[in-house]
């Protein structure tokens, strides 16, 4: 893994990894790479005293503020923020890159890249920033898409909730490579290795009510994700 | 989607979906299908008053208790449970099946299957159940693997944390199919459709320190996930 150092992340008690410190890559570029490569996050909020974890889409604006911003789409999140405006939320983006099978059950593991971001989000109220955030979310999923759709009407914008969270307090953990067995287990008659995993796109499926050809930005996105061509 | 009805899930205030009720499939078999098909979950706990969301592996024992049990591996979760034994946790398993591109930005969506489970977990202390739970986790990732490894030693078992959570309080949401546009947008010159997504396995990579052939259970798992053969 190539690491380019820029501003270091701000480690706090909560983002100082207690286990497997060697896997903690406190490097902002690694964080950005994990976030750029992901498509969805799992958002954690507290509702009525209990944790709630929901998947949602996100977008990035890495030029905003000192550390960049992640935009989140979602009414459940917005509801929790309205109920508790000063609440810290947690946003986790995970790539699972491989199943790591060791000779011992104990050393089974997973190759992964995972980013965890904490902070008090801002419910975006300004219509211009809301539109900006939504465009970032749509373009994160399919680059170029925001200019190839009908933009939201004022009414649609009002119905949509967008949160902004600065990428200030975050941690990244990664594991890659082969299985690590104990020296005394190396001769056991059990296979060790990795089953690589990845997310791929299939051939784009045009809506039954559309007779347009698949446009270049959709084709490019699918190909980037390894669609069969 | 074929739905086989067995015991209905127990909807509570928290698992009564407020948005998109039509997507709420309160059916236990759908829940089990989502859990069986998944490999990892995102676990939400409260640590020092804030939500923390972490990815982890899981296993299933659907024959245990009235509703079945999910086993979770992870020391961070265990730490939170030791700190607050009566704490409710949230376990979310998500499959993202496709990017849904509508003519309007507003109707962009995601095809997905997502299960959310709430409950007070039990920290598994009994070594026999701990071994059972770990075997379920390993076999969930790669069926048959638990009998093709060196089992954990007593010392390794003691170092490993396993949580058990009954599948009693849960909700499932799914979306599939084409993009749904407003009637008046159907003639707009924007493509609508779906980019399908799925997780696939690559060719298994044997460890550099192993000269064994890839065994059948590993080959089968990779093939099941659509590895190139």
Automatic annotation (TrEMBL), chains A, B:
Stored InterPro entries: Pyridox_Oxase-rel, Split_barrel_FMN-bd
Region (Disordered): 1-22
Biased composition (Low complexity): 1-14
SUPFAM superfamilies xref list: FMN-binding split barrel
Entry-linked PANTHER family: 5-NITROIMIDAZOLE ANTIBIOTICS RESISTANCE PROTEIN, NIMA-FAMILY-RELATED PROTEIN-RELATED, FLAVIN-NUCLEOTIDE-BINDING PROTEIN
Official protein name in the record: Nitroimidazol reductase NimA-like FMN-containing flavoprotein (Pyridoxamine 5'-phosphate oxidase superfamily)
Taxonomic lineage of the native organism: Bacteria, Bacillati, Actinomycetota, Actinomycetes, Propionibacteriales
């Amino acid at each position: 893994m190539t690491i380019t150092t820029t501003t270091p992340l701000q480690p706090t008690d909560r983002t100082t990894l207690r286990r497997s410190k060697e896997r903690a890559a406190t490097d902002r570029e690694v964080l950005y790479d994990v976030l750029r490569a992901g498509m969805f996050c799992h958002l954690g909020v507290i509702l009525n005293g209990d944790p709630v974890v929901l998947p949602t889409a996100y977008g990035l604006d890495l030029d905003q503020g000192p550390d960049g911003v992640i935009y989140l789409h979602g009414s459940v999140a917005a509801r929790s923020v309205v109920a508790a405006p000063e609440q810290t939320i947690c946003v986790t983006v995970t790539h699972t890159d491989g199943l790591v099978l060791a000779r011992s059950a104990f050393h089974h593991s997973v190759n992964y890249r995972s980013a965890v971001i904490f902070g008090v989000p801002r419910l975006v109220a300004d219509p211009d920033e809301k539109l900006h955030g939504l465009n970032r979310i749509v373009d994160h999923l399919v680059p170029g898409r925001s200019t190839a759709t009908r933009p939201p009407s004022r009414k649609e914008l009002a119905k949509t909730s967008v949160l902004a969270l600065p990428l200030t307090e975050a941690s990244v953990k990664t594991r890659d490579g082969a299985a690590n067995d104990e020296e005394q287990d190396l001769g056991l008659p059990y296979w060790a290795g990795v089953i690589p995993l990845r997310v791929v796109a299939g051939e784009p499926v045009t809506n039954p009510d559309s007779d347009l050809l698949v446009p270049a930005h959709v084709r490019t996105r699918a190909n980037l994700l390894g669609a069969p061509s």
